[in-house]
Q: What sequence folds into this?
């Protein structure tokens, strides 16, 4: 039987621990690089292609119905003016799709789509020529037969291009999850083995070093009366084990971050698909309904009951369009137009829209525009959307006869930079603890008829501005939201 010395035991245990640490690190680094490569391929190719397919479908849907509306509206050329921008958008995103496409299948679909769109555009021009030539019935027949067929062909090809890229994302996601599970299994196994060797190392250390040292110290105290001092060797070993466990924790954290990025990529693909589906299934019928409603309203006389019915229908259509707008704004945010603007006039504009509802519910408003508030760097339209979202939410939770408070002042962002802070406080019951951490999550809502995108879109808008949207306080006395807006730099004195 081979008897090992204490140094050999220590050497063997330390070697085993180091080998496991190296193996864990190698597996983690390899897995992270593989996941990173898959994610990078998804970000560089699949997601841009998905977005291009989505935009192509949207631009097609925006073109559909304009020629029909032109004919039904007795040749009003204002309908045809709306064709230019969607056609330009289609050409732009078609070129983007060409750039991001890699597989032969994608190129084949795009070749067919280019030919189909040219045929679709040609058929539309023929319909317009027939109508201008006084052959309205032939133009309508060609519109319903040929143009509709070509549109469906183009839209089906866009859906095929979208599906090819979504399938590629799903395949990469499945492969990445398998790799992550395999890597995590090896990491956990190595961690378990490292823990086992650490326990054995500790037992050897205690049995082979500490207990003999204690016995020696006891003997020394009995013989010489010297005090036992702590050795540096134990501190070194403890530091080494702590560093090793820190490496394992960092590796697991890196794997979790990779999985989180992959989950976000999948969510973006799903949101894009959802937005396209909503636009296809709802927006086009709404456009047709609005068109016929407008035509009927023009042809009918001014009967008050009829006008009231038309008003109710228009209001419901507007509500549906706002829901679609929220989905599309979340899927493809508009470009900001940053200008120097003063906040009080924008707040006043937003309050004007809510004045009838405030008066109806007898809700008072505390708002005194500050006279010395500097200008902000802001997109006025986007900022009004944020204000309207917060004010409508405050109005909905504030009891009748109570009040809503609004304030605006210049502050510091905590790093020495100037910001303008607008605070809106309602008199509602407050936000429950289990809801506070989720109010800015997309699609999370406590309303029966809500989309869960209002606060999410508002927070994203302020983040795009370099500002913030925060929940400052909530409770029985009401809830306060704070909007941080970057202050405009002072203009040089001429």
A:
């Amino acid at each position: 039987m081979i008897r090992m010395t204490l140094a050999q035991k220590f050497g063997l245990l330390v070697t085993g621990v180091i080998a496991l640490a190296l193996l864990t690190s190698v597996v983690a680094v390899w897995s992270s690089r593989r996941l990173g490569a898959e994610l990078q391929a998804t970000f560089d190719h699949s997601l841009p292609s998905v977005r291009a397919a989505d935009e192509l479908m949207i631009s097609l849907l925006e073109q559909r119905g304009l020629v029909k509306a032109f004919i039904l509206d007795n040749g009003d050329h204002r309908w045809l003016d709306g064709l230019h921008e969607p056609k330009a958008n289609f050409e732009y995103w078609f070129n983007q799709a060409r750039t991001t496409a890699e597989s032969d299948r994608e190129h084949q679909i795009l070749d067919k789509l280019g030919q189909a769109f040219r045929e679709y555009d040609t058929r539309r021009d023929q319909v317009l020529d027939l109508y201008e030539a006084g052959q309205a019935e032939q133009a309508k027949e060609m519109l319903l037969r040929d143009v509709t067929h070509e549109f469906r062909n183009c839209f089906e090809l866009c859906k095929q291009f979208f599906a090819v890229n979504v399938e590629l994302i799903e395949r990469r996601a499945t492969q990445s999850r398998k790799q992550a599970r395999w890597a995590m299994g090896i990491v956990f196994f190595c961690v378990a083995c490292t823990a086992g060797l650490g326990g054995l190392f500790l037992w050897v250390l205690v049995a082979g070093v500490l207990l003999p040292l204690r016995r020696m110290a006891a003997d020394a105290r009995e013989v010489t009366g010297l005090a036992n001092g702590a050795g540096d060797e134990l501190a070194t070993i403890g530091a080494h084990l702590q560093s090793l466990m820190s490496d394992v924790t960092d590796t697991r954290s890196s794997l979790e971050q990779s999985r989180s990025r992959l989950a976000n990529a999948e969510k973006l693909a799903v949101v894009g698909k959802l937005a396209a589906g909503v636009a296809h299934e709802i927006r086009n019928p709404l456009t047709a309904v609005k068109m016929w409603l407008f035509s009927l309203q023009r042809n009918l006389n001014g009967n008050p009951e009829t006008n009231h019915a038309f008003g109710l229908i228009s209001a419901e259509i507007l509500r549906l369009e706002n829901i679609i707008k929220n989905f599309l704004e979340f899927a493809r945010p508009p470009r900001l137009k940053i200008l120097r603007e003063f906040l009080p006039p924008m707040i006043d504009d937003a309050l004007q829209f809510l004045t009838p509802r405030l008066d109806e519910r007898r809700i008072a408003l505390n708002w005194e525009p500050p006279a010395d508030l500097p200008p902000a760097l802001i997109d006025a339209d986007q900022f009004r959307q944020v204000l309207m979202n917060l004010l409508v939410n405050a109005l909905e939770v504030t009891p009748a006869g109570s009040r809503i408070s609004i304030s605006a002042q210049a502050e510091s962002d905590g790093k020495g930079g100037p910001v303008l802070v607008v605070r809106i406080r309602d008199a509602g019951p407050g936000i429950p603890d289990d809801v506070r951490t989720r109010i800015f999550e997309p699609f999370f809502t406590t309303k029966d008829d809500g989309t869960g995108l209002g606060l999410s879109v508002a927070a994203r808008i302020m983040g795009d501005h370099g500002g913030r949207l925060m929940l400052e306080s909530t409770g029985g006395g009401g809830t306060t939201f704070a909007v941080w807006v970057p202050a405009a730099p002072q203009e040089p004195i001429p």
In short: The chain has a mean pLDDT of 75. The longest strand covers residues 403-412.
